[in-house]
Specification:
Layout (H helix, E strand, L loop, with lengths): L5 E2 L9 E5 L3 H13 L3 E5 L2 H10 L4 E5 L1 E2 L2 E2 H11 L5 E5 L4 H10 L3 E4 L4 H12 L21 H13 L6 E4 L6 H10 L8 E5 L8 H6 L16 H4 L4 E5 L6 H13 L1 E2 L8 E2 L3 E6 L3 H6 L5 H7 L2 E4 L10 H16 L8 H9 L5 H15 L7 H4 L3 H5 L10 H19 L4 H8 L3 H11 L4
Parallel strand pairs: 2-3, 2-4, 4-7, 7-8, 9-14, 9-15, 10-11, 11-14
Antiparallel strand pairs: 1-3, 5-6, 12-13
Helix pairs in contact: 13-15, 18-19, 19-20
């Protein structure tokens, strides 16, 4: 087969240009025609060698490539572009149902994928998203929005990865301890990417009753079940064109995991009570503080769903790994809290800052915010002293709780307080889930929090 380069003449002005790589002439013609109707110029070639030659002599805004080429694989082109034209989004065309190829392409740096037979609606959406990518903008500089604060090596590494994954549509799995900023990372990925002008929909998977999950995620038709008096859209519909953030995804029951996997792979959902499926264009970012690999080995999380969600893993460091960032975080948090309360941000005593930098913060940044909010409300003087922080002395000194002085009740209160704070941190502040973790009723937890003066 002769490899012919098809060029469309330039119109008036500078049009955006797309490189199409496919060895099937009819596919090239279909893509060329579709792109032309979108006002785009297309260079269409049929081999990996021709694609490399075109990339060396022409600047493109998007590359569309088939996975199977006569002289190589589409993955080879994805890697070549990642090494030579890092800011060029490249999307791959895969065989129907070829999940493994799609995931491999995304891991290699592809912007997105589309399956054969090519849906023109999906193709147009993909092209528009790729062309809407903003110029690279570091995750620490959000044009007035709060980015990722800190200069520690761990934070710098996370910031760099966020910048890279924001320029793709690959699913991201954000890991890290409770309170370490997983949702902030997900929002930054959304705000730095092509979907920044569409919805960011956060969902706490552990807070949805199992019998309501399907209707909450996929919506329902009027009359689908008792109480369904009107049609309702689900999370996937609300996030259409944007990002769906699944927090604590490990809490999903196995039956729901199967349905979620199909929705992600097929990019289509079926409302409860509906006869047909509807297309949805959603980027999925998930998060959990649990070890999903261990849950897969235990049979509590589907391996195929884990493989699909864990295309790119982003680990958020614990606050104790970034102690040098604590002063900057403290300044920022205090300024925000003081502004919200309509007061001046108070200074922090040197001993208070030393105490904060020595504390292990099992609840991470969320716990730091709680500590500072309480100190701001209860401070006796005109600055925050170490005593105002009310940090657990046992954790500050590294001494075991049993050796701490004071009455037995004080010791028991301290242990109970820390257990409740840890459970609240693990459940992202959800008191119902925290009560379940502690093995007590919600009413009992509420009473204990009131007695100990815990405000969450």
């Amino acid at each position: 087969m002769s490899m012919k380069t098809e060029r469309r003449p330039r119109g008036h002005g500078e049009s955006k240009r797309v490189l199409v790589v496919d060895d099937e002439a009819d596919i090239r013609e279909l893509l060329d025609l579709t792109l032309a109707r979108m006002g785009l110029l297309a260079d269409c070639v049929g081999s990996l060698a021709e694609a490399r030659r075109m990339l060396a002599g022409q600047r493109y805004q998007l590359c569309l490539t088939d996975m199977r080429l006569p002289d190589g694989e589409g993955l080879d082109l994805v890697r070549h572009i990642a090494e030579t034209v890092a800011d060029l989004p490249v999307a791959v065309i895969t065989a129907h149902g070829s999940t493994e190829n799609a995931v491999s392409a995304l891991k290699a740096g592809a912007f997105d994928y589309i399956a054969k037979p090519v849906s023109l609606d999906q193709l147009r959406g993909l092209v528009k998203s790729a062309l809407d990518l903003p110029s690279p903008n570091p995750a620490g500089d959000m044009d007035g929005e709060v980015g990722l604060l800190g200069e520690s090596p761990a934070i710098e590494q996370v910031r760099g990865l966020i910048d890279r994954v924001a320029r793709s549509q690959a699913p991201v799995h954000v890991t890290g301890e409770s309170g370490s900023g997983k949702e902030l990372a997900a929002r930054l990925i959304h705000n730095l990417g092509a979907r920044r002008d569409r919805s960011f929909v956060p969902v706490n998977c552990g807070a949805i009753p199992e019998n309501l999950m399907e209707s909450e995620f996929f919506g329902y038709r009027k009359g689908a079940f008792t109480g369904a008096s009107d049609d309702r859209e689900g999370f996937f519909h609300v996030a259409d064109g944007g990002t769906l953030f699944l927090d604590e995804v490990a809490e999903l029951p196995l039956t729901m995991q199967v349905k979620l996997l199909r929705a992600i792979q097929e990019k289509r959902v079926r409302k409860v009570g509906a006869t047909g499926e509807e297309p949805v264009d959603v980027r999925v970012i998930c998060a959990t503080h649990q070890d999903l690999k261990a849950l897969v080995e235990q049979g509590r999380f589907r391996q195929d769903l884990f493989y699909r969600l864990n295309v790119i893993e982003l680990r958020m460091p614990a606050l104790r790994e970034c102690r040098e960032d604590i002063p900057a975080l403290v300044r920022h948090i205090l300024e925000r809290l003081a502004r919200s309360a309509g007061v001046m941000s108070p200074p922090l005593a040197a001993t208070a800052l030393e105490a904060l930098q020595s504390y292990p913060f099992p609840g991470n940044v969320r716990e730091l915010e709680n500590v500072l909010e309480r100190a701001l409300a209860l401070m006796a003087g005109d600055r925050i002293e170490a005593a105002d922080l009310n940090l657990a002395p046992a954790q500050l000194s590294g001494v075991a709780p049993a050796t701490v002085g004071g009455s037995l009740q004080d010791h028991l209160d301290q242990v109970e307080r820390q257990a409740i704070l840890d459970a609240l941190a693990q459940s992202n502040g959800n008191r119902t889930a925290a009560a379940r973790l502690l093995g007590v009723t919600f009413r009992s937890l509420r009473y204990r929090m009131a007695r100990l003066g815990i405000n969450e």
